[in-house]
TrEMBL record:
Pfam families linked: FMN_red (PF03358)
GO molecular function: FMN binding; NAD(P)H dehydrogenase (quinone) activity
Stored InterPro entries: Flavodoxin/NO_synth (IPR008254), Flavoprotein-like_sf (IPR029039), Flavoprotein_WrbA-like (IPR010089), FMN_Rdtase-like_dom (IPR005025)
EC number: 1.6.5.2
Domain of life: Bacteria
Gene Ontology terms: cellular component: membrane
Organism (species): Pseudoalteromonas holothuriae
Record keywords: Flavoprotein, FMN, Oxidoreductase
Database matches in NCBIfam families: flav_wrbA, PRK03767.1
Family affiliation: Belongs to the WrbA family.
Protein name: NAD(P)H dehydrogenase (Quinone)
Every Flavodoxin-like domain range: 4-175
Length: 183
């Protein structure tokens, strides 16, 4: 069985909705999904540990955009993982990234690239969204070749669009397929 950690921070629920779409898709394919957050905000939240990363076969990682960068909670966590990096414990694990912003040009692509940096430093294999996912060409909201994204609106009231949901599902499917091939 493939074990996948879906790690996220969500301020207003958009990134959590994306994490759930990706998680549901992974579970549909038969993965053991471990949904994790950086801090416990609700009773059902499970906080990430470094052991979670060591034990997983693949990782999906997302936060809202913070001026084109990852949320501080995520950065703080990744800064504690030097011991994993020194031992090469995440090398060759497939990973993908996802993000949400308030506006169409609110920094999603920059954030997705920023989310990728610690994964690449750890030697993980970064998976994007290939253009055989037709929603990349049809979306009028979120979705990039760098990863799934969402445009929440200035009051964070936009629900995931059908295109954004399909892109999240495509990301989950691709992550599962690559992790399965590698295992």
């Amino acid at each position: 069985m493939i074990t996948v950690v879906v790690l996220y921070h969500s301020s207003h629920g958009s990134v959590e909705a994306m994490a759930n779409e990706i998680s549901d898709t992974l579970a549909f394919h038969g993965a053991d999904v471990r949904l994790r957050t950086f801090e416990q905000r609700y009773n059902y939240d499970q906080v990430i540990t470094k052991q979670d990363l060591i034990d997983c076969d693949a990782l999906a990682f997302g936060t809202p955009t913070r001026f084109g960068m990852m949320a501080a909670q995520a950065k703080t966590f990744w800064e504690t993982t030097s011991d994993l990096w020194l031992k090469g414990q995440l090398i060759d694990k497939p990973a993908c990234v996802f993000s949400s912003s308030s506006s169409m040009h609110g920094g999603n692509e920059a954030t997705l690239l920023n989310l990728s940096l610690p994964l690449l430093h750890h030697g993980m294999m970064l998976l994007g969204v290939p253009y055989d996912v037709p929603e990349l060409l049809d979306t009028t909201s979120g979705g990039t070749p760098y990863g799934a994204s969402h445009v929440a609106g200035k009051d964070n009231s936009n629900q995931l669009s059908e295109c954004e949901k399909r892109i999240c599902r495509a990301v989950g499917t691709r992550l599962f397929n690559i992790a399965s091939k590698l295992k």
